[in-house]
Amino acid sequence: MEKDIILFDLDGTLTDSKPGIVRSLQYAMEKMGLQAWSETELECFIGPPLQESFREYMGLSGDEIQRAVAFYRERFSTVGIFENAVYPGIPELLASLGNAGKRLFVATSKPEKFARRILEHFELAGWFEDICGSELDGTRDEKAQVIEYCLEKNDLRDLSRAVMVGDRRHDVLGAHRMGLEAVGVLYGYGGAQELIAAGADELAPTVEALETLLQ
């Protein structure tokens, strides 16, 4: 895959953020007086915009969503943000791509403020020309909006040279909406069925396979 511009999702693609996300969700649900969900049941929240997931999976609306997000961030911003781990092989992948002259970016629906803190904490931020995400008020939380923002902000015009890498259907659909090809990674939280149904152009079962594909 001859691509010089690579946009990466964060959760489920660069880092395994499940512990911090699900524990912060459980905290928010308890605060809201909602029935508890297991960690496995809450995996559907990993990747998509938080507000969208509260609406789609829990049936919340309006002020309920805002309260749930506020409770979630109450825990996530101080504790959950670092209940997280870099997938094995990711530092080596970024080094290999960066040293080969590839231009690397992050495009995540996670608030940009949190994404930067996470990547700086794990000493990965230096490989990326820019880290793009949503705003805390929910602005630009759809993946297509984040990709568009990243492309425009960094004056990336030749979309034939660009690809989006992610683990959920939102990454694939957002990329295609903006005219980019998309690689779905199978070690995250979407799975092959979801990614194929969304129209992923390529699938990478492992980080090693992803490196081979992107070189």
Task: Give the class-level CATH name of the largest domain.
Answer: Alpha Beta
Tell me the number of structural domains. 2
Parts with pLDDT < 50 across at least 5 consecutive residues: none
The number of helices is: 9
CATH architecture label of the largest domain: 3-Layer(aba) Sandwich
Share of residues in strands: 15-25%
Mean pLDDT: 96
Percent helix, as a range, is 40-55%
Number of strands: 8
Strand order of the largest sheet: 5-4-1-6-7-8
Task: Please give a handful of descriptors for the protein shown.
single chain, 215 residues, alpha/beta, Rossmann fold, DNA polymerase, domain 1, 2 domains, six-stranded parallel β-sheet, two-stranded antiparallel sheet, 9 helices, 44% helix, 16% strand
Describe this structure in a few short sentences.
It contains nine helices and eight strands. By secondary structure, it is α/β, with parallel strands linked by helices.
